[in-house]
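Why run this: before we spend reagent on co-expression, it is cheaper to look at a predicted model of the complex and decide which construct boundaries make sense. The entries below are exactly what would go into the expression plan.
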Amino acid sequence: MDPPGYTFRPMQARRKTRQVWIGDDVTGRKAIGGDAPILVQTMTAGYTHEIDACVAEIERYRQAGADVVRVAVPERKDTEALKEILKQVRVPIVADVHFHYQRALEAVEAGIHKIRLNPGNINDRDQVNKVIDACKERKIPIRIGVNEGSIIERKDKQKRMEELGKYFAGHKSGHLLALMIAKLEEYLEIFHARDFHDIVISAKSMDPALVIDIYTEIADRFDYPLHLGVTHAGPKSTGAIRSVAALSTLIANGIGDTLRISYASDHIDEVKDGLEILYCLGKRERKGVELIACPTCGRIQVDLFTLVKEVEVKLAAEIQLPIKVAVMGCIVNGPGEAEGADVAVFAGDRRGIIYVQGQRVANVPEEEILDRLLKECKDFEARVKRGEAKLGDKVVDIVPPDPIGELGSGAQKINAGLVEKVTVRAT
Ligand code: SF4
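The model came back. Tokens follow.
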């Protein structure tokens, strides 16, 4: 029961949607929507018709954890390449189609797993019908992807727009919101007339606040799975913040069935950051190490930034299990984080004390911290794999050293030789 005056408000339950399936026997089949986990997507940056490079790029993303990879098919030679690409990949592939509905038909013919259509540039009813019929025959889902950037009829005066415009009056992007919703409704009507419901919807913008509002509206209006994204989010440095702001808000509100982060940088980061959002929100089971590190402050007595960078790279390369590792700068927050971590180090005066599940295992000079921490992580992982240890268990309560003595509280103990003098810089 809540204590008086408090109401516990947990994260919203996931919104119920229809479910679509993508993939085949070779790639494996994945569900989007319904009770399926939220999937992470990215898109290739190279040319699809460069088959070997395209396959290699897709494989790189798959290995990083991408559940689905999208490829651009602007030209006939791209859809022609799809047949060969689809024989070689192990992850469902989406063909991104703009302007030319024929590319969608060719991609379907090649055996593509999903089509993305943009209502902003393929809106001839007969053409859309042809794509729908082809996809229906082969049970291929279609994502209807409305992008703010490709909505061009901003002065559209249709009646529905006026109605929606009133509804969104007062919203700073009310006209655009109304236009995107009107576009979607109009487009969906074509699909419904064909009794086609293997649909995923997206409505991206570069404005995170608008992304939150538009997806919230769409989630209220339609029961199709939603593909989330902040489009043209910029370089990773700023794009990450924009994406996390919008996507985390939506997911915490129960909205979203698959996502793509869009960075103007190596797309491997899109996959990693997309997964990280889901891990952080508890929506996917973490794969690989969870690294906790302090930001450092005026108490720091080792080169923690370098250490953390090296630890991150080494652990990502050498540890598979989701071990929680804490790299802390000093005794202030070190013991607390070490208690919650499987393997932890907290540093002091050019030294580091290493703990494994609460048990102190080493006290080493700074230059040995990296190797020793890595060794302890590997040993711990091996023990978990042999069933001798369990992730998240704490064997003993941490009994921290009392190194702040020279700053006050433990001076007597240190002077009496009762504690290790490990984190106090000699002055
Ligand atoms: S753990 Fe220590 S060094 Fe790191 S931020 Fe906290 S107080 Fe500062």
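The longest helix spans residues 174-193. Confidence is low (pLDDT under 50) at residues 404-411, 421-427. Bring this page to Monday's planning discussion.
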